[in-house]
Amino acid sequence: MDTENLKIQIKTFFGLEEILAEEIRKLGGTNVEVKNRAVNVEGDLGFLYKINYSARTALKILVPVLTFKAWDENRFYDKLFDFPWDEYMTVDQTFAIDTTIYSERFSHSQFMAQKMKDAIVDFFKFKYNKRPSVDTQNPDVKIHLHIDRELVTISLDSSGDPLFKRGYRKEQGEAPLNEVLASGMLQLAGWDGKGNFLDPMCGSGTLLIEAAMIAMDLPAQTFRRRFGFQNWLNYDEELFKTIKEVRLNRVKEFTGKIIGYDIDSDMLHAARINIESAEMEDVIEVKHQDFFESKKELFPLMMVFNPPYDERIVINDDEFYAKIGDTFKKNYPNTLAWLISSDLDSLKRVGLRPSRKIKLFNGKLECRFMQYEMYEGTKKIHKLEGREGDS
To answer: Which tens digit of pLDDT belongs to each residue from 264-283?
Structure first.
């Protein structure tokens, strides 16, 4: 592997591509290219370590090591059998394959993964008379197989476990927000740690913790124990240690307030456990508080939240969303508020015209991330009616 000129592909969620690209540019990436749910970039081994450790909206970071065209299974197998796998792993290391296939010719992903596994095992058996083992739960080396029609791309997964697994979440509720999505929402909303932050329906605290990490410039993977690249044959432990030290030296003190409300005591307990796990007890405060009975206490204030929606949590949607709008209007003047929901009909009950609408996905649920700007008096009406929402 050429460790100076790596071509790197970073996966993300739909709608977060530009946010990720900006993160990667700030981290020093060159030739940054925005794709669908991904960003391509070039860099050296140190840069690969740095983006794994720091990028907030990255899901996994792949390094392509082989690209070829295959028209049938035999050519696919032969190309993989001829590849020097011992430059990337030892016969004593375990491996796993995950697949993404868009091809009529090779439509069965499990079959192609099995074929690839056979080629890797046969390579080692032929050369060393020993077979490496597959471990789908906790592999030493994770390999990604991507087939687009007849174009095959084999990549090493430098992250290992997906990067939304930050390491701080010990407890979760019924409908937890993915950490990468939470961070992406905060960055789309423009949260930069200046001022104060409120999540009025905080659940197990993901938005609160991600908001605090952004405010303090704490690397996304501060609490993560292991990355895939640490099992690679070219792993440079000293280099990674230096990158972590340099990055942690940039952490800053946050002087504002980050507060979460919830009416569910079990959720607040879960949030406190996660906040403690993230070592944020001094930064984040959670309260047993009904948002609909609350008033604005912090100035200036940004609000971002993930209210209940979809079949997992039962609420009277129309009434609930109307109460959100009423609370905004009556109790939160001069506030910028964002909320995400998949219940597009109920969102209309908020009764305020959104100044921005961004399409995102929470798991498989298509959602809208809505921005509402509350102004006092007549200024509110003129400003809101004079804006066009994003589609």
So the answer is: 999 999 999 999 999 999 99
